[in-house]
């Protein structure tokens, strides 16, 4: 599906299945769309500020001119400026909601640029990129108590990307964002309630490789080697590593507010770690063939 800005405005989700060159072109269009929305937001915000200042000045001048008989006219102008401020404010809010989360499309753009050489030009790449806020009501997963804190948890899987690489391996990537908000009210020494708030957030990355068991035999025997092969940035933690006959899955966690370059680099390091396990399996297959030959 070609890039459709109107659909993006209404759904806040980008979906496509296309060759990697077309997906990259769409991502560049997403960047341009985001820049345009940000520019429109700033323009209307400046207009709202100007109308607000002029309305305040007109109101003061109008009050001062009431004894001279011109106050009603100037106060009428102040009212018009207030209405203009309201319109500008609404337009600012509208364009603010249309802005995209930059690190989301930049992650996919940077990642596909690095993976492009490993994807055949005509191989379909399926991408679903969700730009909705993680804290929307539909993304609330839990409400309850954590110790003395009242907690509200949200989760949003905002990226799914899958394709077949040139070596025949099926690749699937995913990103999930989690946020938790905590608050509690305590009675202080003055007899007043004081509310404390905490926020926890994380981004979970997943990489899955599906392979043909006959090409990569004995994968399940390589779980220990898979753990030893894991190489990740210092700020990233391994949360899951699963090896079966035809699949290797790795999941990691990192800070949500990290560098926009860190997530693509983490994805690439996860891929390299998993391919090291596949290389172990290939070596075992070659050793088996060598022993079987007369």
UniProtKB/TrEMBL annotation:
The chain crosses the membrane at residues 48-66, 72-89. Keywords: Membrane, Transmembrane, Transmembrane helix. This is Uncharacterized protein. The lineage of its organism: Bacteria, Pseudomonadati, Myxococcota, Myxococcia, Myxococcales.
């Amino acid at each position: 599906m070609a890039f459709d800005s109107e659909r993006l405005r209404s759904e806040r989700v980008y979906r496509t299945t296309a060759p990697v060159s077309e997906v990259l072109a769409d991502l560049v269009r997403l960047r341009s769309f985001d820049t345009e929305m940000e520019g429109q937001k700033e323009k209307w915000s400046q207009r709202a500020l100007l109308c607000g200042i002029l309305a305040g000045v007109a109101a003061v001048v109008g009050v001062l001119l009431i004894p001279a008989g011109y106050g009603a006219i100037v106060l009428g102008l102040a009212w018009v400026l207030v209405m203009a401020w309201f319109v500008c404010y609404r337009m600012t809010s509208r364009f603010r909601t249309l802005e995209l989360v930059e690190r989301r499309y930049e992650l996919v753009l940077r990642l596909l640029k690095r993976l492009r050489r490993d994807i055949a030009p005509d191989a379909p790449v399926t991408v679903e990129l969700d730009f909705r806020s993680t804290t929307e009501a539909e993304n609330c997963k839990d409400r309850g108590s954590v110790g003395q804190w009242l907690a509200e948890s949200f989760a949003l899987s905002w990226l799914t990307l899958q394709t077949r690489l040139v070596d025949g391996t099926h690749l699937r990537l995913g990103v999930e964002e989690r946020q938790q908000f905590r608050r509690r009210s305590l009675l202080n020494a003055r007899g007043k309630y004081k509310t404390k708030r905490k926020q926890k957030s994380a981004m979970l990355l997943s990489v899955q490789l599906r392979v043909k068991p006959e090409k990569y035999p004995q994968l399940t025997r390589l779980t220990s080697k898979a753990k030893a092969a894991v190489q990740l940035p210092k700020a990233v933690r391994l949360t899951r590593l699963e090896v079966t006959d035809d699949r290797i899955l790795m999941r990691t966690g990192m800070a949500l507010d990290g560098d926009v370059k860190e997530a693509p680099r983490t994805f690439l390091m996860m891929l390299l770690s998993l391919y090291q396990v596949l290389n172990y399996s290939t070596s075992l297959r070659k050793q088996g063939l060598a022993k079987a030959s007369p």
